[in-house]
Amino acid sequence: MDFLYAALDGSSPLFGHIEWDNFDELTSLDVVLRRRRRTSLREGRQFLRGYAWVTVCPAELAARLGGAAALEDSGAFHRVLPLRAGGVLLQASATMDGYTDRVMERVFETLAPVLPPGEPRPDPAHPYTRFVPRDAATVR
Predict the structure, then answer these.
(1) Does the CA dihedral 106-133-29-67 come out positive or negative?
(2) With 0-12 CB in 10 A as exposed, 13-18 as middle and 19+ as buried, what is 4?
(3) H or E element: which one contains 73?
């Protein structure tokens, strides 16, 4: 986490994530919403591309969520590290094993105002994709 923070701190990243068993250009949320990578990237400063054990949220979306202090106060994250350019690095739990369904649900609910709308559906081609089976638009 500290290495990632050091690498990102001087930049204004669009998105980043660390999660178990997903090394694809598509995020887990892209998969279950059937969003194309190009659309996800193009809309990356309008909608957060996904949520994971570690999520990098761009400055524009962090501001819509109330900034780093509000995200820290939400209690949904183990660590919230503000980046100099305005984005935030969010760590959901101390360890990847600690990223349980309950923790994932809290992260989803906190980030829902900036997640893309749509009813997520499991994808048989990606049977191990973890996601909260709710439309973020219903949480706002």
Answers:
(1) negative
(2) middle
(3) helix 67-73
Copy the structure tokens of residue 116: 């893309």
How is residue 29 written in tokens? 């949320």
Q: Which domain holds residue 36?
A: 2-138
The burial class, CB within 10 Å (0-12 / 13-18 / 19+), for 102 is exposed
Look at phi and psi of residue 90 and say left if phi exceeds 0, alpha if psi is from -120 to 50, else beta: beta
Q: How far apart are CA 82 and CA 15, in angstroms?
A: 14
The tally of domains found in the chain comes to 1
pLDDT tens by residue, 75-111: 999 999 999 988 999 999 999 999 999 999 999 999 9
| pTM: predicted TM-score of the whole model, two decimal places | 0.94
Taking the C-alpha atoms of residue 19 and residue 51, their distance in angstroms, rounded to an integer, is: 9
Count the alpha carbons within 13 Å of 27 in the hemisphere toward its beta carbon: 27
Paired residues of 82 in beta bridges: 88
77 Cβ contact list (under 8 Å, min separation 6)? 71, 90, 91, 92, 107, 110
